């Protein structure tokens, strides 16, 4: 008998006997795939994290190196007349190496940190390969490359890869518009808006040059020299570039003088009776020479300064804290500007108990142990005092509340006897100084110049004011 054409399906497991174990194989394959994807994601995540850590290390190191160049005053010697460029770059390189090594990349300090200083034909030690001083002193840049090798891997080990390498590069600029001929509202250089500038506006008169004490303003017998050159082919540049170390040298960086309010020394009334600049050495109480006077700056009605340890009025707050509101601008601010920088002659910060000495003494912790500046070595060393909030008395630090920025105004364009309350003035530069101390006999500030920034060619009366630059800001310029 022939079998039926259509067979009935058999019940039970006899028909599926050849499928036994397939599920286990599929599960094993799935587990392997899941583990592989998990391992791959861990490897990729580890590399991404290490790459981000390397970038942070490079950024921090580049900014620290640039900060070292800034506080060294190197940009105040744009032609390397003092021959300290290589020393400044060596110190900056050491700082970059130290800062980079303090960061963790993939669980360990970076394996390799490379620091270079490149501008024009400069070599890595900041000296010109052609033997001539070129553009490195104007807006110098520092590049830091961080590399970490042999990063641990997980899934990649299957293919024999036992480690990976990540790297990152950052470039920071020390921005100083001095000697920058292209610096203008339409130029290629992007200005930096200053913050925390103190409302202590000094005239464009350098009391240390000439070496004898000057007794009158420009145009009179024995005038002071200028911080910033305002006319001729060198307009917008530093007049006396150079660095003084341990008393040797004739440059503006490292020179010391006293700053006193150009107001009634009794502190009564305002500064309406502006005297000749600078103050006479035979005044009472006597003011040590060399010295230069200042005028108090105006503050906006909506004012913020934080933190501030002297809060009697906004003027004190701006000196004892960080003025984040007032925008000081380079260039001609009158009469075309809608936001001019002005002086406030209704404020009298003079005298031992005046607003300026009171706030400045608070700022630098004078009564509790202020920081001090060692000018016998280059770059200058800032050493923490007993009152330093970091509680590291006697150690070398990279920043200090004793470092302040002062605007420089053109006193030849607006003679002081024509100034009144809220009179507009022209800012032609900024001076970064270290406050060595506040006099308890006359209220003057003893300061040492750490850096200077001229406003470039914006001192020309035909230009419009632009956002200014504080000496000497640093910024990352690495392309995204």
Characterize the main sheet: 6 strands, mixed, barrel
Which shape, going by the Cα principal axes? Answer: elongated
Helical fraction: 10-25%
Q: If strands are numbered along the chain, what order do they take across the biggest sheet? A: 4-8-7-17-16-14
Mean pLDDT: 78
Strand content: 15-25%
How many strands in all? 19
Secondary-structure content class: alpha+beta
Note the gap between the termini: 86 Å
Q: Tell me the number of structural domains.
A: 2
The Rg value, from CA coordinates, equals 32 Å
Verbal overview:
There is one protein chain. This protein has 480 residues and is of the alpha+beta class. It folds into 2 domains: 34-174, no CATH class; 194-364 and 401-470, no CATH class. The protein is built from 4 helices and 19 strands. The strands form 6 sheets. The protein has a 6-stranded mixed beta barrel. The protein has a 4-stranded antiparallel beta sheet with strand order 1-2-3-19, with helices on one face. Strands 11-12-13 form a 3-stranded antiparallel beta sheet, with no helix packed on it. β16 (427-438) and β17 (445-454) form a beta hairpin. α1 runs antiparallel to α2 and α3 runs parallel beside α4 (355-363). It is elongated and about 135 Å long. Mean pLDDT is 78; it is low at 182-187, 275-282 and 459-465.
